[in-house]
């Protein structure tokens, strides 16, 4: 019968049979799929695996540490590449959302290409990806935008002279099955249940220019929101949640003085397929508590609003 244990053994055997004694490169994003794949590959082929995690400086608070912690079993097979300066430099002055995506995608390929070339020179032939069955269907069907949306994580843009064979052990699995594997492989709970997070990260949750100061403000506010969702046991009841920093400033009062702070939007949605989504009816007492915490702990923010628009017509992200 078809148990997660059975799937685990089958995939392990398949991977071993396919790659033999050769080396495998994997890009990990911090999401469930690539993290689970990292643990699976490591179980199957040990240090023939190199997993590369690019810190583009657009991650949530503590996210990098969480990934490092979760993938500690990999030991030196995990390479964390610190590239914040490169990404933030490239994003300077960029305000258009699509342009931000392009820049992040381009820099990601640059960083990853460096790693890939070094490995290729050492005879590495395989590039592993956490492609799931629905992704396979979608790219075969052509129509839907999400294959393209996810392009930079799926490392489509590597130069043609880098010849890797693709290894996609999850291409017949659904997300739930990957989550079951993750449990068997000991992937920690916060990553196993994590909401999706876009490849361009916080860059598309800061409307207008991305600066280190704005990133810092958004990171703190976002962390308060997400931590509160967990604390109130609401995290698993929504499909995705985000704080969005607008470039708007509004007037307020702090003590006896007028203040002038950023407008921050909170967004939480429920959805099955992310193609349509409903705004989440979070309890008002919860929203009240979050708004208080954010304005108290992040003085740069003067006003907190909650997005009550569904998709369509609004997208989940604001950019
Ligand atoms: P939208 O905003 O289009 O988002 O309703 C649908 C889902 O896709 C995610 N998303 C992205 N993921 N790169 C990604 O990897 C992107 O550029 C991107 N844009 C949106 C979004 O977070 C949501 O889960």
UniProtKB/TrEMBL annotation:
The keyword Nucleus does not apply. It catalyses: XMP + L-glutamine + ATP + H2O = GMP + L-glutamate + AMP + diphosphate + 2 H(+). Pathway: Purine metabolism; GMP biosynthesis; GMP from XMP (L-Gln route): step 1/1. Keywords: ATP-binding, Glutamine amidotransferase, GMP biosynthesis, Ligase, Nucleotide-binding, Purine biosynthesis. Its EC number is 6.3.5.2. It comes from the Bacteria. ATP binds at residues 29-35. Catalyzes the synthesis of GMP from XMP. Homodimer. This is GMP synthase [glutamine-hydrolyzing]. It comes from Meiothermus luteus. The chain holds residues 190 to 508 of 508 of the full protein.
């Amino acid at each position: 019968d078809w148990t997660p244990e059975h799937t685990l053994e089958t995939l392990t055997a398949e991977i071993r049979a396919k790659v033999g004694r050769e080396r495998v490169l994997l890009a990990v994003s911090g999401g469930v799929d690539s993290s689970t794949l990292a643990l699976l590959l490591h179980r199957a082929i040990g240090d023939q695996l190199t997993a590369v995690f690019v810190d583009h400086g657009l991650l949530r608070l503590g996210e990098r540490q969480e990934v490092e912690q979760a993938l500690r079993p990999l030991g030196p097979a995990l390479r964390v590449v610190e590239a914040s300066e490169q990404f933030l430099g490239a994003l300077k002055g960029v305000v258009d959302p699509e342009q931000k995506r392009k820049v992040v995608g381009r820099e990601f390929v640059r960083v990853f290409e460096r790693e890939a070339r070094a490995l290729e020179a050492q005879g590495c032939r395989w590039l592993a990806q956490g492609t799931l069955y629905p992704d396979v269907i979608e790219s075969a069907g052509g129509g839907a935008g999400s294959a393209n949306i996810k392009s930079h994580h799926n490392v489509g843009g590597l130069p043609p002279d880098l010849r890797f064979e693709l290894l996609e052990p999850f291409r017949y699995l659904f997300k739930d099955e990957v989550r079951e594997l993750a449990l068997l492989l000991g992937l920690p709970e916060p990553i196993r249940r994590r909401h999706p997070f876009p490849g361009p990260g916080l860059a598309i949750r800061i409307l207008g220019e991305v600066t280190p100061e704005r990133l810092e403000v958004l990171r703190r506010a976002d962390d308060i929101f997400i931590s509160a969702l967990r604390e109130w046991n609401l995290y698993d009841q929504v499909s995705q949640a985000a704080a969005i920093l607008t470039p708007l400033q509004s007037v307020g009062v702090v003590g006896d003085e007028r203040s002038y702070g950023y407008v921050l939007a909170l967004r939480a949605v429920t959805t099955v397929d992310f193609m349509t989504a409903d705004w989440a009816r979070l309890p008002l007492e919860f929203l009240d508590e979050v708004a208080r915490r954010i304005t108290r702990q992040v003085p740069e923010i003067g006003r907190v609003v909650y997005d009550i628009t569904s998709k369509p017509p609004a997208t989940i992200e604001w950019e």
